[in-house]
């Protein structure tokens, strides 16, 4: 009986301590919020105590490949409930945590630019990404991030990332694959273009980064087989990425999906990249970025002149491969999907006419250069509109490094600053922000390139398809 009494007293003491600590913390942060002139944001659809219901519904939506649409539907429902536009809300997440969700351009701009030092990737993302990506730039914070940025930034000058000869060889391989599926009427059967685009960008990105392509297009097609290990690298890389994406939905429980199979895929990816890292390091520091054929720029060889740490070289290569390959393939997929939509045939015909006039036909091409493509106005309008409707990173998250605030979202009208505690997550959706009718007009969901006639993708956050920074540079500039 005495033991039971002691246990009850100890349990009560722990409970009282937890309650006291929580109340004290709440009072402290309330005082800090008042000092900063902050007001509370409205509660979101999911605010039940455990936070599990929102996570469950979010995972369901992810498995159905409609997570961005799910978020948009929840925000629309909330706006109907409160009777006004809502750009920022508080959500309950597991273990009684309050997470901020925003789709306000001012808040997103603050996190990614003007208040960059107040926010970082957070321990959940870095812990989830690190097994595959190491300490590379997309899985690092603070000094490690600054180091990665300083190491990588010199490699992204235009002369080094605008090699259209490299890209042309892989586009021709894509055309070869398509030609094999042509029927007697000159048309192919139904094809999964997205898979072909992911192989195209994998081939070009690996040649740019490693100096040697995995040759997944022709190898997969069965006519000019690539090495068996190369194709298994592509499969292992894809499966590893899927695990990271699913783990991101689980927050601090990402480790639940880091299974033995995941670790096996990661080991295969690392083994493949290590092979090229070893070759680059043996060539020494005097290569000056020259590899393959004379005059060819190879990212790895140039990077090896800056560091001889094999683990860092592998990590940075995988981070840039992730950014450059997936963003490009995803955008190509959505672009062709949109152009195939019957309601946009007039846009397709106009764009085709512009392309033929500016660059010629496949059999009779004119001078095609990086600069001329960037200068083709209607083409750029179409690309911007595709990135607006289908941003490569639809949902992302940052974590506050100290007690701070965001410019808007608080108060009865949502126009006051909101308080952000140190360690609090802020989730933001570029996908939903890009479809806000108050920002883009009543046709915000419509693909209309002409809307770019008098506007551009500026730094104010009204369009940030690749979330800004070096990630934007690698994704938008890699061949």
Tell me what you see in this structure.
By secondary structure, the protein is an alpha/beta fold. 56% of the residues lie in helices and 8% in strands. The chain has helices at 2-35, 52-63, 67-82, 105-114, 123-133, 142-152, 158-161, 164-179, 193-210, 216-221, 228-249, 260-282, 299-304, 310-339, 345-359, 370-374, 377-389, 430-433, 437-440, 469-477, and strands at 42-43, 88-93, 97-102, 119-120, 395-400, 404-410, 416-420, 425-429. Strand 2 and strand 3 form a beta hairpin. The longest helix is centred in the first third of the chain and has 34 residues, at 2-35. The relative contact order is 0.15.
Topology:
Blueprint: H1 2-35, E1 42-43, H2 52-63, H3 67-82, E2 88-93, E3 97-102, H4 105-114, E4 119-120, H5 123-133, H6 142-152, H7 158-161, H8 164-179, H9 193-210, H10 216-221, H11 228-249, H12 260-282, H13 299-304, H14 310-339, H15 345-359, H16 370-374, H17 377-389, E5 395-400, E6 404-410, E7 416-420, E8 425-429, H18 430-433, H19 437-440, H20 469-477
Parallel strand pairs: 1-2, 3-8
Antiparallel strand pairs: 2-3, 4-5, 5-8, 6-7
The total of beta strands comes to 8
Give the proportion of residues in helices.
55-70%
* Category from helices, strands and their pairing: alpha/beta
Strand order across the biggest sheet? 1-2-3-8-5-4
Summarize the main sheet: 6 strands, mixed
What is the radius of gyration? 25 Å
* Annotated CATH homologous superfamily of the largest domain: Cytochrome P450
Number of separate structural domains? 3
Low-confidence stretches: 221-231, 468-479
Global mean pLDDT: 85
CATH architecture of the largest domain: Orthogonal Bundle
- CATH third-tier fold name of the largest domain: Cytochrome p450
The H/E string reads: HEHHEEHEHHHHHHHHHHHHHEEEEHHH
Shape designation: globular
Per DSSP, the total helix count is 20
Oligomer: single chain
Overall CATH class of the largest domain: Mainly Alpha
Instruction: Give the amount of beta strand, in percent.
Output: 5-15%
Q: Span between N and C termini?
A: 74 Å
